[in-house]
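Let us work through a complete example step by step.
Step 1: write down the sequence.
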Amino acid sequence: MLLDNRSIRHLLTVLVLALLPQAGSAACTWNEPGRIWDYKGSIDGKYPIRMSLVFAADELNGIYVYASQLRDIRIRGHIGKDGSVRLDEYGTDGRISARFTGSFPERDPQGRYGDSVLACEVLVGQWQSADAKRAPLPFYLSAEGSISGKLGNRYGAIGAVSNQAVHAPAERFWRALKAGDRNAVAVEIRYPIKVTLNGKIKTLRNAAELLAVYDAVFSPAYRKAIAAAIPRNMFVRDEGAMLGNGEVWFGANGKVIALNNY
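Step 2: predict the structure and record it as tokens.
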């Protein structure tokens, strides 16, 4: 059974805290080449991004994506002996197009982790394009959780053949919902599907039944929550891939398999 939003948020918090180092050292020394750590934050406080990193000793590999673009951008770098972090961003031509420089701080400057001593849970610093035509921009990222897998196919646990097999349909659903294209939304859903109507669970057997109760299912608040999420590099467990805080779940082929609209 898919978990509800509150359970998912609790699960992610537990996962992150369980993986915090028990020692007092603040050094980022994670060495988990088979694990992907997902971060959420922004550049300059106004450009939301998601970043996925794989830690292999002092080497870092990953991808990140802007909420406004939904295009994977490759990054690669390392952690210096002094704790500094450098992540080079690569363009489609294979050249360095920008760079993240910063560190994993001992304390969270935004207070998400309270007064806990951190290792790699928060990454802060500056982002600057390679041409340096404008001043560097500050960035802040905090860990949401981690999954076992590979950057090239993080959804293997649910049987997906590639990241794009999930991302492309998920993005179509997300964009259609934001645009108010009801028919396009209905096409991206796997039926039958359960929804909450007037506090009760109802099973919708096809697109026509969904469209008949569309406004009741996709309330303004529910649409806002979905629109605020990023349908890229999503948390995944064996039941499916999770958008946002569990508002929507996708299957191996990217179709919507759960709508948590309560």
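Step 3: interpret the result. The chain has two domains: 26-148, 156-259.
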